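Late entry, written up from scratch paper. The run itself happened at the end of the previous shift, but nothing got recorded in the book at the time, so transcribing now.
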Amino acid sequence: MKRNALIWITLITGTAIWTSGCNSDPGIIAYEVAYQESATLDRYLSLIFYDVAEDSRCPVDVNCVHPGRVEIVLTPLYYDALGTPIHVALDPDTPALASAVVSDEYQVELLAVDPLPPSSGGIELDDYTIRIAVERK
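Output as recorded:
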């Protein structure tokens, strides 16, 4: 039932809000966003999942010494104008890269990027989804 509601919300708004299992802090909102879709932070600001700049994560069916990293690009949309792209990454060597400040008002943290890469072939951009947590500063 929750999955059907999420799909319905995504179809209607173009934005999926992921709430199950998110942080219990009421000031933090978690979003699940598909490639080229957006998360609406307030009536003036949305974040578009714009691109995957790098995905060197360990393939799902391989045992790797290092887990690798994935970097995504979020583009703020203010009213109807695009802002400066923001890069956030999941990198075990540099955890601070997972978060960024948007518009001096919001702290955005990259929580997950799906799917994990396969050992052969790649991932089509349209198949990517991200989970981000957003906190108003």
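The first strand starts at residue 16 and ends at 17.
(Scratch paper discarded after transcription.)
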